[in-house]
Amino acid sequence: MRIAIASDHGGYALKEYLKGHLAKRGAEALDLGTDSEESVDYPAFGRACGEAVVSGRADRGIVCCGTGIGISIAANKVKGVRCAVCANAFMAEMCARHNDANVLALGGRVLDGETAAALVDIWLDTPFEGGRHQRRVDALNDM
Ligand code: RB5
């Protein structure tokens, strides 16, 4: 599995940590920047990650900023992206099970690396339930 990963400066350290975690899982990380803690604007990075997923260059995406919020808004502007900001295990499970989230957003100033990695695992390992949730996801995709 190839996972596109992008951040701004607020999520840079978390992105770097998660790249190591993805390698341990045997997943390939497609790093779309940023490359340091120098201040950058998150919209371009969220968009790049979303576009990588929708184009098929990556199977899934992970975006990180300070809170996960700004970069998730950017990713969700790309048609076909279902990006979910998650701060706990329940949210990570449900965004996979019910929302079929194809991009996960995490806050580098909210979560430590170990917690964030656990949320990544839950998100990747939880199957989409389909059924009534498929109809809702289809409606999202039509927007
Ligand atoms: C950058 O200071 C910060 O605003 C950004 O990382 C993010 O938290 C925005 O949602």
Fold and architecture overview:
By secondary structure, this protein is α/β, with parallel strands linked by helices. It has one domain: Sugar-phosphate isomerase, RpiB/LacA/LacB (Ribose 5-phosphate Isomerase B, Chain: A), CATH 3.40.1400. Helices cover 48% and strands 17% of the residues. The chain is built from six helices and five strands; from the N terminus they run βαβαβαβαβαα. The chain has a five-stranded parallel beta sheet with strand order 2-1-3-5-4, with helices on both faces. Helix 4 (89-97) packs parallel to helix 5. It is globular. 43% of the residues are buried. The mean pLDDT is 98. Bound molecules: D-ribose. D-ribose (RB5) binds at residues 8, 10, 42, 65-67, 69-70. D-ribose binds next to helix 3.
Defining key terms:
143 residues; alpha/beta; single chain; 5 strands; Ribose 5-phosphate Isomerase B, Chain: A; five-stranded parallel β-sheet; binds D-ribose
